[in-house]
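B., you asked whether I could sanity-check this one before it goes into the benchmark set. Here's the sequence:
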Amino acid sequence: MPKHLLAAAALIAAICAAPLTSGVAEEMPPLPRQEWSFFGIFGTYDRAAAQRGFQVYKEVCSACHPVKHLYFRDLTDLGYTEDEVKAIAASYQVNNEEANDQGQIYQRPARPSDPIPGPFPNNQAARAANNGALPPDLSMIVKAREGGPDYVFGLLTGYKEPPADFKMLTGMYYNEYFPGHQIAMPPPLNDGAVTFADGTPATVPQMAHDVVTFLTWAAEPNLEPRHRTGFKVMLFLVIAVGIFYATKRKIWATAH
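And here's what the prediction gave me:
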């Protein structure tokens, strides 16, 4: 084989091997598997956990992350009453849709029909407040990440001291479930960061589990109707197969 072809083959082999070597160096541990109430054909959302999760989002996560696809009125699906939703909405200030008599846009208490406002007016302001990084929208984060709820739970609970031989970049934090293990977001949860009204201990795993339940509902609020429809369809198909089989036996019973 000519020398130039040998050199090209060697170069291609080196390029193909590089990602494999890198992958071994940054091998990810298996995600922590959790028992989620919404898994399985009969899965439903744990309303108490989802409400605690909304509290964790509101008091901790909302300082940086929006939930752009949620409206206050959607919270009634979590078991909040209309009066409770009105009270939650009124604790936020939003820009009024129309200007006042002087042509100025003013702020007012939010209403249930308003979207839940994010912490920043636009992406540029969000980047400026986070050293150029844009905090992702959390309303679809569970669907947007491989591993879904287990990955988000692992990320929230995966902060640890880096191994002695691991070289950390300045301003980064070690997370065993984040690709590359270096993440710019500081650990968002600490034991006792919130006080749950139902007395549930606010440990890091508990808060992570609850906020992931809330974020899963935010990403897929129609999960329960879909599960009910799927069960009804499966039940119909089972009954239909039984009827078709019985009919076939009756029709062909005398035909030999």
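One thing to flag: The chain has two domains: 32-70+121-237, 71-115. Otherwise nothing jumped out at me.
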